[in-house]
Amino acid sequence: MLEALKRPGSDLFDTLRAREFARLDDQNLAYLDYAAAGLYGASQARRYAEQLQEGIFGNPHSQHGPSQASERALVQARSAALDFFDADPAIYEVCFTANTSAAIKLVGESYPFSPRRGLVLSADNHNSVNGVREYARSSGAAVAVLPLDEDLRLFEPQAGLRKVARNGRGLLAFPAQSNFSGVRHPLDLVQAAQALGFDVLLDAAGTGAAAYVSLRDNPADFLAFSFYKLFGLPTGVGALIAKRTALAKLRRPWFAGGTVDYVTVEHGRHRLRSGPESFEDGTPNFLAIAALEGGFAFLNQVPQPDLQARLATLTEAFLSRVQTLSHRDGAPLVEIYGPKTMEARGGVVAFNVLDPRGGALPCDLVEQRAHAQGIAVRGGCFCNPGSAERAFGFGRYDVEKSLDDLGDGFTIKAFQRSLGPQSVVGAVRLSLGLPTNANDLDRAIGLVNSFAA
Ligand SMILES: Cc1ncc(COP(=O)(O)O)c(C=O)c1O
After folding, report:
1. Which of 83, 166, 358, 387 suits 450 as a labelling partner, its CA being 20 to 30 A distant?
2. C-beta of 208 in contact with ligand 1 (< 6 A)
């Protein structure tokens, strides 16, 4: 595996690991949960601390100098976010939100769903996208789901959309990269859906620091993401990047401070502001937003092609190595959910460790041993039930019956028991980021191998 990393550019990553992420090695931690949260660099944190110590930031809704300092930070951050997703500022706006979920909710609560304007979801979606179906349903809109194939890729999505389109268009929502399997869904689906008359909401929270979504090439109407997935600091800020024309289709269900040109109490009237501010309820998180310029500067010191090549090399090395592991009798030690090669996938790998008879060990057992060894991975279904249902092969009738039987007594353990002793209800997820090195992955391989019998 180390040989694969002896390539130009790998020195930069070693240097950054030593200089910016020394705390990982100081604490003997193999952090492999970048799909949950990226990590900030030490110099990024210092720069932010200095900014706070020296700067005076006021509420951007006021007009004085400290407010103008905050306003400048907002303007810079909007521009950096547009750059990262290669979005034309003449077409797109950036609305700051608390996180990806809040960005998606802005669309869900104000999209004009109706019996003729429905929702299409990929089966692979985070629950923060799945939840939009509740808004659609409450407007009497149909909800359709595009299914997955056995590699957890979308199965003939364009044909599926054409079928749905016969009953009317609406909103299509899918992730650029799955937070479950690492699958990169085909971005040409954006324009194919738009050609059929759909609006497209792209969830980009799973792409992390890899800037491979270009809104010039794949001009989604809405794109949602969280900044901490990119560079760790700050938390509490995400954004909805949206075409101005798409924002104009939304009907906000309320107004709040900061979103209005005027409100009259006596006449019961209000007028929303034009532009992104009409979607930014109340005071924006201006101190956190002030950290974004430094976050992008930190990330931009690594050329994107190098970062993407590095993550692909490491992921490929892990994938090929982990699949050779076996028990003493030759029985395989892991089952990978999703693509087993690097074709159209990112640095997220979901798997289970198998016993010699091929049954999956409970993911919490593997997770506990990982944590005891200082390896930070995630276990469960990662808020992505559609991918989990396909990966674990749940029977539709069995699930329905179990949920009915369990009622208020639902727990994951009780659910698994009711599906039967061989059922699988969770996996282990390992996800790579800018600081990841070969040693982190060696430790993950060692962890899996420690279950060999
Ligand atoms: C693909 C995807 N979408 C949405 C979200 C929700 O992001 P947040 O919790 O920042 O709102 C996540 C979080 O892990 C995610 O991975």
Report:
1. 387
2. no
Do the domain assignments include residue 397?
A: no
For 324-380, the pLDDT digits (tens) are: 999 999 999 999 999 999 999 999 999 999 999 999 999 999 999 999 999 999 999
Per-residue model confidence as pLDDT tens digits over 12-29:
999 999 999 999 999 999
* 155 and 296 housed in the same domain: yes
Q: Of 240, 275, 300, which residue sits at a domain end?
A: 300
105 lines ligand 1 (CB under 6 A): no
pLDDT tens digits, one per residue of 134-155: 999 999 999 999 999 999 999 9
Tell me if 126 CB under 6 Å of ligand 1: yes
Q: Is 23 left (phi over 0), alpha (psi -120 to 50) or beta?
A: alpha
Q: Which of 233, 268, 300 is the last residue of a domain?
A: 300
Q: How far is CA 396 from the centre of its chain?
A: 27
* 97 CB within 6 A, ligand 1: no
Cα separation, 105 vs 251, whole angstroms: 13
Residues 99, 239: Cα–Cα separation, whole Å: 7
Q: CA 88 to CA 216: how far, in whole Å?
A: 7
Whether residue 207 sits in one domain with residue 196: yes
User: What is the domain range of residue 228?
Assistant: 48-300
Q: For the whole model, what pTM was predicted?
A: 0.97
96 domain-assigned:
yes
Do 25 and 55 fall into the same domain?
no
Q: Report the residue among 33, 96, 99, 126 best suited for mutation to probe ligand 1: largest number of ligand atoms under 8 A from its CB.
A: 126
184 lines ligand 1 (CB under 6 A): no
Cis status of the peptide bond prior to 234, with omega within 30 of 0? yes
| Same structural domain, 274 and 310 | no
Residue nearest to atom 12 of ligand 1 (CA): 205
How many domains, the chain?
Answer: 2
pLDDT at 396 > cutoff 80: no
Residue 244 Cα to ligand 1 middle (Å) = 24
For a substitution probing ligand 1, which of 128, 129, 181, 207 has the most ligand atoms within 8 Å of its CB? 128
Q: Does the beta carbon of 178 sit less than 6 angstroms from any atom of ligand 1? A: no
128 lines ligand 1 (CB under 6 A): yes
